[in-house]
Amino acid sequence: MQHFKTLSAFLEYLELPGPEHPMLSVFSATEDGFLPCPKESSPPITNDCYTISFKKIVKGDLNYGRTTYDFTNGALFFIAPRQVLQWDSSAVFEQNGFSINFHEDFLKGTELAHQIKKYGFFSYSVNEALHLSPKEEKQMASIVENIEIEYQNNQDEFSKDIIISQLSTLLKYANRFYERQFLNRKELSTSLLERFNLQVSQFFETGQLQKKGIPSIEQIAAKISVSQRYLSDTLKKETGKTTTEHLQLLLIDEAKNLLLQPSKSIAEVAYELGFEYPPYFSRLFKKKEGISPTEYREKYKLN
Known about the structure:
Elements lengths: L1 E3 L2 H8 L9 E5 L13 E6 L1 E16 L2 E3 L5 E5 L5 E3 L4 E12 L7 H5 L14 E2 L2 H19 L6 H26 L1 H20 L2 H5 L4 H7 L4 H12 L3 H17 L6 H7 L5 H12 L3 H8 L3
Parallel strand pairs: 1-3
Antiparallel strand pairs: 2-8, 3-7, 4-5, 4-6, 4-8, 6-9
Helix pairs in contact: 3-4, 5-8, 5-9, 10-11
C-alpha cells in the first residue's frame, strides 16, 4: 500500500495544487463556486496528515460503495493520519466548501497535538459525518476564513500560533455540533443499541462465545456496519454507559440463566460465555451483582 510521508507528495498524488506552507494547505471554493477535485479514483493509500473537509454537493451524486449519500446540506469529514483511504470513479459531482490538510508534525510542541487525539470523530466512517445546519455552516466558514487569511499572508512569527488557535476553535465547535447531532438523532441511537444487543445475542445463540471467546467492540461494530468510535460515542451519549459496559451487562444477564442450570459448574459457565479464565468471570460477576456466582446460584436456585 502506498504511503505518503509529506503533505506535498500527498497533494501531488491527489492532483491538487501544491501547498503554500510545507505542512499546511487550505482549499476553498473558487470563483466558479467549486472546490478543486482530486483524481477520480485511487487504490488504498495512507499518509501522515490530518484532513478536515466540508463538502456541499452542488451537482451530481456522491456514492460510497452501493450507497448514495445526500450531502446537499453539507457534511464535515475528519480524517486522521494513517487511516486507509480509497475511492472510485462512481462519485461524479461538483461541490463547494473547504478542505484543510496539515501534517501531524505541524502540531508538534502545541497543546493541540495532545487534544486532537481525544476527538473521536477523526475515527468515524463516511456515513457518520457531521451534518451542519445553515447556522453552523456560517460559524465554521468564518473560522476557516480566518485560517485562510493567515495561510495566504506572508508567514511571520505569529502565523502558526494563530492558525493553531483557529484550528483548535474549529474542532471545539465540531465537538459541540456532534453533541447536537447525537441528541437530535435519538431514534438512530436507540436503533444502534438494539442492533448492538441483537448482534451480541447472536453470539450467544450460535455458540460463538465458547468457540471464539468474547468478541471485541471492534468486531461487534463491524458486524453492524459502524465504526467502533462512533458506536462507543453514540451509546455513551444516549445511555451513559460505554460499549464495554453494555457488553458486560449482556454477559452477566446470560450468566444468570446459565448459573441456574445445576449441571454446569462455575468454570463451565465462564468458558461457555467466552471467558478464558474463570476467576476473571467470577470477579466481574461479583463487581456487577455484589455477590459471587456461587452465592447467586445458592440464592436463586430452583427448588
